[in-house]
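Quick one, T. Sequence first:
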Amino acid sequence: MSVLNAAHFKDETAAYAFIEARVWPKGRICPHCGVVENSGALKGKSTRPGLYKCYSCRKPFTVKVGTIFEASHIPMHIWLQAMFLLCSSKKGMSANQLHRILGVTLKSAWFMAHRIREAMKDGSFGPLGGEGKVVEADETFLGKSTKTRRKAGQPRPVAVLSLVERGGAISSVSLKSEPSRSEIMSVIRAKVDPSSALHTDGAQHYKFPHPDDIASHQSVDHNKQYVRYVKNGESVHTNTLEGFFSIFKRGMTGVYQHCDVKHLDRYLSEFDFRYTNRIAAGVNDETRALRAIDGVKGKRLMYRELTQ
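Structure tokens:
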């Protein structure tokens, strides 16, 4: 049986009940006054599904308030379908594809996708790595390589720095300029546990001026080899990130094709989320979608924020 045959993907009442169980695991909370379990469902013939009235502040509310779903007129079961499709597509799914599958307008599909990416932003895990763990750091470019001549007026390629804990989570950021030691070091200090071992390529901006920034640093010269073996048998490489970059670039160039720089961090959150919650980490498509739903709270995104 298809996963999309589940009741919450087809029925609006079931969809609201499904979301409420994830957003309110400890009881129904009024978003206006914060009182728990002091509300009741409104059951008039013309009342929309999922509408409650708080007996404390006397205000109506739904589970949408204070989430990425707030003020959306798109049915909740369509939202759940969109989240599942975006979470289960390894290289992403374009707004045009969502528009055709879900039967919503292209503008709505584009806005939905960005709000789902907002839900995928994950700040729950702490610094990457730790004692005895390896973190890889590397950067890539979106657009033509810096070694390729650009025509007059052509935008510079955008640099992306990614950090991955081997066997664990990944975190990516877009860089404001060409990769520089100061900017890269500020990201590493913020995101990597200083007791970690760091593996990089031989780029000069990974030459650390302060040894206390990281427990140990090993590099591999990609002009000579892609894996370097040291005396204790440890393999030094950034191949984990090379695999991630291949998925990321195929998604950005083959699926999304055009991405404004101001939206890039949300796309990075999407690819980071799917990689962190990958099959190899024991997370299947259904669980990955559930984790995305857990991130909808407190992440309201307005259309004008995307278009200004």
